[in-house]
Amino acid sequence: MDKQNTTATEPVRVLIVEDDMVDRMACRRAFRAAGAYALLEAETGQQGLELALSGQVDCVLLDYNLPDLTGLEFLASLAKLAGGEGAAPPVMMLTGADSATVAAEAMRRGARDYLVKDTDGRYLELLPAGIERMLREQRLRLDKQQAETRFRTLVEQIHAVSYVAGTGACGALQYVSPQIRMLLGYTPEEWLADSGLLRARMHPDDRDAAWAEVCACRSAARALRVEYRLLPRGGGELWVRDQADPVPGPNGPVLQGILIDISASKAAEQALRQSQDELRRLGAHQERIKEEERKRIAQEIHDELGGLLTGIRAYILVAQERAVAAGSTPEPLLADTADLVQSAIETVRRVITDLRPSVLDQLGVWAALEWYADQVALRAGLRCVCRIDAQAAALELDADRSTMLFRIVQEALTNVVRHAQATQATIDVACEPGALRLTVSDNGKGIAAEGLLSRESWGILGMHERSRSFGGQLAITGGPDGTVLMLRLPLEENQDDG
């Protein structure tokens, strides 16, 4: 029978190791009166060891004075031969009335309980209850060991380093799983023995901030969430996520945590960031090419088509004047043709302006914004105000940043006209420490949250990408009082007012 699974219907097998026959008989009588007990007896320590290790007993009742061994020697031999805690049956020591020191030493060496053999034999009445209590504690102890073993096995199978750290004054590590060897090349014993090893193996660039956070969380017994680089024993570096949570411990809260190798995800994140940067640079390059192409096309339209239409209109006007001078009535179709040519000239001018307003290249971005605000007011019947403070007006932005600012304002006001149902829009430009702040606001119905989050809002996405190309931060907020677009653009040293 397994000593962990004794039941009320199966007798408890008690081994009595006692050389005095009278005492053995007294013990037999006490157990017989108590009920379901099966007794085995040994007169010497060696016989007792053989029976105790045979697997046929649930517990041992041990006398201290034996002919070949003392009780302490018996306990030492039993622990050695059994080969581990829980492998041997629990032992209750019987000591003399004046042997408190012996009893304490017996408990230290592995005895689970003891009874004092009084001269009146009252200890015999306590034997059954003492045995039951000792076996109950044994079962609880074994259940705890099995639970801990299962938990440790589970922990040591995951692909992360598990650890337990104390709290208060940057508590020391209490446990670290074997995965530390695979992660960093150190044994658990080495990692636990050197309290400064974690800090020493942190990357120099991450050490101060990461270690301060680790110490703060351990000292305050609060959750830890931090990422940093570690330097393995064999060289190189790896990224880890260190996360821990406080849990109750026998002597107060402890932090149970894990170290997860996130090097692969960090590498993927870096590759993604690099790809995004490259795409952003490509997008900015394409925008420059597009702006140059717009400028070239606008110039060609102005020089070629605009000049051609102006010439045609001039010829028509000359023909009309000659007819009048000859005393005849000008052909009505000539007047109609002249009007059509004038309309075409105005259309060409509008197309040229939409492609690349000449005021942007000739007078700069601030004049271009004021001019564009007037154009929007004329075309859309919208009151459009442009305010540029003196410090901002004194700045001379380079051509690329000027174009970026103009296109963002152009897109913002186009959205106001198309979607906002507003009666007024305002452009504000001001300087703040190290940056330029551009704000475009309206009093319309306000943009909905789904409009801001939609990946199909290409105009909004385009404004974000344009601003990011120059390190700008663009935010759009909407509400019942309208929509506000704010761009914060860092200023370079060569763009200070001069």
Q: What would you say this structure looks like, in words?
A:
The chain is an alpha/beta fold. The chain has four domains: about 10-155, Response regulator (Rossmann fold, 3-Layer(aba) Sandwich), CATH 3.40.50; about 160-260, Beta-Lactamase; about 270-355; about 360-495, 2-Layer Sandwich (Heat Shock Protein 90), CATH 3.30.565.10. The chain has 17 helices and 15 strands. Strands 2-1-3-4-5 form a five-stranded parallel β-sheet, with helices on both faces. α15 runs antiparallel to α17 (about 460-470). The longest helix has about 60 residues, at about 265-325. The radius of gyration is 46 Å and the shape is rod-shaped. The termini are far apart. Mean pLDDT is about 85; it is low at about 1-5.
Itemize the secondary structure elements and their pairings.
Elements: E1 12-17, H1 21-34, E2 37-42, H2 45-52, E3 59-63, H3 71-82, E4 91-95, H4 100-108, E5 113-116, H5 123-157, E6 161-165, E7 173-176, H6 179-184, H7 188-193, H8 197-200, H9 204-220, E8 224-230, E9 238-247, E10 254-261, H10 263-325, H11 332-355, H12 358-362, H13 365-380, E11 383-388, H14 390-393, H15 399-420, E12 424-432, E13 435-442, H16 449-453, H17 458-468, E14 473-479, E15 482-490
Parallel strand pairs: 1-2, 1-3, 3-4, 4-5, 11-12
Antiparallel strand pairs: 6-7, 6-10, 8-9, 9-10, 12-13, 13-15, 14-15
Helix pairs in contact: 1-5, 2-3, 10-11, 13-15, 15-17
Organism: Pseudoduganella aquatica
Protein name: Response regulator
Domain Histidine kinase: 296-493
